[in-house]
Amino acid sequence: MNHASGNISAWGGSWLAGVVTVVTVVAIVTVVTVATGIVGCELPADARYGRPCSSSTSCDGYVCETGQCVPTPGYLVGGGEGEGEGEGEGLPCASDLDCVDDLFCTGEQRCINDRCVVEETVCTGTTPRCDEAADACVACVLPSDCDDGVFCNGAEFCVDSVCQAGPTCANGCDETNDVCRCAATTDCDDGIACNGTELCGRDDVCTPGVTTCEAPTATCNSVLEVCVCTADADCDDGLACNGVEVCRDGACGPGPAVVCPATQPLCQEPDGACACTSNTECDNTAFCDGRERCVAGSCVAGPAPVCENGCSATTNACNECDAVADCSDDGLFCNGPTACIDGTCGNAGTPCGGAECDEVRNRCIACTDNADCKDDGAFCNGATICTQGACVPAGSPCGGVTARCNEALNRCDECLDNSQCNDDALFCNGAAVCLANGRCGQSGSPCPDLCRESTDTCVDCLSTSDCSNDALFCNGQQTCNGAGLCVDSGPPCADLVCSEATDACAACFANTDCVDDTVFCNGPAICSATNLCVQGGNPCGGASPLCNEAAARCDACVDVGDCSISDPCETDLACVAGQCTSTLLTCQFGCNGAGGCCPVVAPCEIQ
Q: Which residues have C-beta within 8 Å of that of residue 565, sequence separation ≥ 6?
């Protein structure tokens, strides 16, 4: 099929004149082309290979051939005319090593005349095309490899490196003009609404529709199928007062409108200037600068008023006076002297400040009754009252026994401190003090326990009954002595031992109460059942019955004569440190009892 034609008719589907869609499958590489632009692609290992191009300058060292970048001239032709050793120019080089590019399709290259040249064509015969991604020679790589130049048999395409026949025209074909014929308008619909309705026209050829897009959205977006604006200028409605329109995301939106001030509320086209429409809009409400007017859309000032004593911006009127001489006195005292205030005659105000004014006597007074007087907040000077027009304190509210005034607590007291109280000369009730309730009293007993008034002293007891008995027998009973102290009467047992448990005195109640005589052989000192200290007796007996006073121990022997043999195997009998010792023989056939072993042949009798 010839792809140069721009007229496409129905091939079993709907096509738009001037738009060509080609889908090419090369191994796992997919290239989708809309018109002359690449929508998306994944190139082989070298990104230059197969890149769309219009000249070799965009191929980064490759050459542009049949609209795509290839390593060398004639690369896609594969063994075609003009190829041979040393022909054409490749990448610059200094030696053959510079020409090793690890690409399958470039084949063996050599450096000739400072350029890499293909020494031998890789792919020939029935597989003249080279697939770099698959490192293989194939029948086709691109759709152009399969194009037979005939339009009406459909656009051939390459699938899995094999050329396949393309779809033919459904309603007949015009080979001369390279167009498919249509049978109905539906054969021509390109599916895009905003570019108009395509028609099947004269000679059964599709004709484009008329766009439905008008200003300001005069551009058709074929992807969104809507009419859109492309720039702010598309949205301009020619009016200045509603602001400058903007184009955002293909839609026109209003700009900020002109905001005119209250004195010139009218926005005028075509320049958006603000203007007034009446004198009322220009009036600034100020009297002294004259009455403003609206002239040709602009506010202009009017002539100022003529005032004999000047003009007041405060009252918005001509002044009544310039000085106090221009004003007449009203003869009243309490409103103050006559004055010219901001151009108006008046009075200076009361001469009495915050006090009451007596107009009859032309004088200032603080009060006319007690209600006019403000209390000073003090308690001890009494309530504030009105006396002869003056507010004065009534005096202390305190008298009699509670004649002293306590300002801090707002009350009348008998005393404010201790010095104002008289002492009663008694020791045991303490000193005279001013109590917290403002009355005089005594501080209380100065003693922690008992107080003896007769001696002005603090004591533990006044009599023995004041002493607390601790219920112990061995320390005696407590009594109150002349100094007022509780003392113990002393131990009741003199040189004997006192038993708190039995409330009794004795020589001893336990062995520890007795003193030992340090003699070993008569035993330790012990407390007898009659509570007397005695010696316990000879401590020796049993296997060691002999008492050795010198060594303070119990012995079994004094010499070897006190020892005897109890085993026929014993020998070397001796008395050592009061104990009998011997050595045991080890005999195979027994011992003879005389310090020897029995013979083997005739066991002996024990002696």
A: 573, 582, 593
The closest of 344, 282, 284 to 309, measured between CA atoms, is 344
- 347-397 pLDDT, tens per residue? 888 888 877 888 888 888 888 889 888 888 899 998 999 988 888 998 899
* Token representation of residue 600: 């083997």
**Length in residues, the chain:** 607
Q: Strand pairing partners for 537?
A: none
- Collapsed DSSP state (helix, strand, coil) of residue 324: helix
Kindly give, in sequence order, each residue whose CB lies less than 8 Å from that of residue 518, ignoring residues fewer than 6 positions away: none
Query: What is the bridge-based pairing of β-strands 390-393 and 115-118?
Result: unpaired
Report the distance separating Cα 435 and Cα 413, nearest Å: 10
Global pTM reads 0.26
CA distance 129 to 120: 14
Determine the Cα–Cα distance for residues 359 and 136; give it in Å rounded to an integer.
Answer: 128
User: Cis before residue 216, ω within 30 degrees of 0?
Assistant: yes
- DSSP secondary structure letter of residue 282: H
Residue 47: pLDDT above 90? no
d(CA 318, CA 327): 15
| E strand residue ranges, 91-205 | 109-112, 115-118, 129-131, 136-138, 157-159, 162-164, 173-174, 179-180, 199-200
CB neighbours (10 Å) of residue 165? Answer: 13
For 150, 406, 417, 585, the CA distances from 398, given in Å and listed in that order, are: 136, 9, 17, 125
Q: Please state whether beta strands 317-318 and 129-131 pair in parallel, antiparallel, or not at all (unpaired).
A: unpaired
Q: What is the residue whose two structure tokens read 């026994």?
A: 401
Q: What sign does the CA torsion over 73, 77, 79, 82 have? A: negative
- What mean pLDDT is predicted for residues 122-137? 82
Higher pLDDT, 138 or 11: 138
Q: What is the pLDDT of residue 388?
A: 82
Q: How high is the pLDDT of residue 116?
A: 85
- C-alpha span between 563 and 440 (Å, rounded): 104
